[in-house]
Write a structure and sequence with these properties.
Length: 265
């Protein structure tokens, strides 16, 4: 009755079904893990943004790698901005997705040490070689507040990324790279400025991370699992249809074979 399952067409179809089911199940679990990671990250963001501010030197030091548990922690720093060694990070977007640069200004801390401060976004210059117009930071001693972030990296120190770039322009926010440019130790990670905000809105400070959206990953997971459940159902439907069609064809052939031959004159 089901010998047709051994035909080349049905063997290939069955093999495809056997591959699709575990693949779709695995894709569902992949999306579930992404959902769980997003929920965990949102909880971490909320916790760290709501935590009481602490001095930046309490959470990091020269050569320190900022752990994920300290991402977005609110920190404070008191010192003097070193505008002479200010650099910009190329190819970064503003809140409304315009391409420009980020302004990195070293802050020489009161009591010793330096931390890199990302003061925010400004439009790029007319040419890629030119240094853009950057509003000056407050003069003299200032206390700033911001979010602690980990160094951006390509897997190396980031120093090689300076090759071929115009003066005072970089591609990464990297404390080791800045220490190389400054010739002195720099605290690991960097500070994403939130206060004091520029009076005229420039540089445009970085928006707070989103800790409310969980994304569509759970819906995608359920969708993949429904697909995985639907594949065998579809296979059974095709199987029954094939069986019915073959039975009807066999019945027609049987009727044709048993019908009497018409009489001849």
């Amino acid at each position: 009755m089901y010998r047709f399952l051994l035909t080349r067409q049905w063997v290939i179809l069955t093999l495809i079904v056997l591959v699709l089911i575990p693949t779709m199940v695995e894709l569902g679990f992949w999306q579930l893990h992404r959902h769980e990671h997003r929920v965990e990250q949102n909880a971490l963001i909320t916790k760290n943004l709501e935590a009481a501010p602490v001095p930046v030197s309490r959470l990091t030091s020269p050569g320190h790698t900022v752990p994920r548990s300290d991402y977005w922690r609110t920190v404070t720093a008191t010192g003097t901005f070193d505008t002479e060694h200010e650099v910009v990070v190329r190819r970064r977007t503003s809140r409304d997705e315009h391409i420009g640069v980020l302004v990195l200004t070293p802050l020489d801390l009161k009591g010793g040490g330096t931390v890199v401060v990302n003061r925010g976004w400004v439009p790029a210059a007319a040419t890629q070689e030119a240094f853009p117009e950057v509003p000056a930071p407050p003069r003299g001693e200032v206390t700033v507040t911001g979010r602690l972030k980990a160094d951006e990296t390509t897997g190396a120190s980031g120093i090689k990324d300076l090759a071929g770039l115009p003066d005072r322009q970089v591609m990464l926010i990297n404390s080791a790279q800045q220490a190389h440019l400054l010739g002195r130790p720099v605290l690991g990670g960097y500070l994403e400025l939130t206060d004091p905000a520029p009076a005229d809105g420039s540089p445009e400070t970085i928006a707070a991370p989103d800790d409310g959206s969980i994304g569509p990953h759970m819906a995608y997971a359920v969708q993949w699992w429904l697909f995985a459940a639907g594949v065998p159902v579809g296979w059974v439907i095709l199987l029954r249809r094939e069986k019915r069609d073959r039975e009807e064809q066999a019945a027609k052939e049987s009727e044709s074979a048993g019908a009497p031959e018409p009489a001849t004159a």
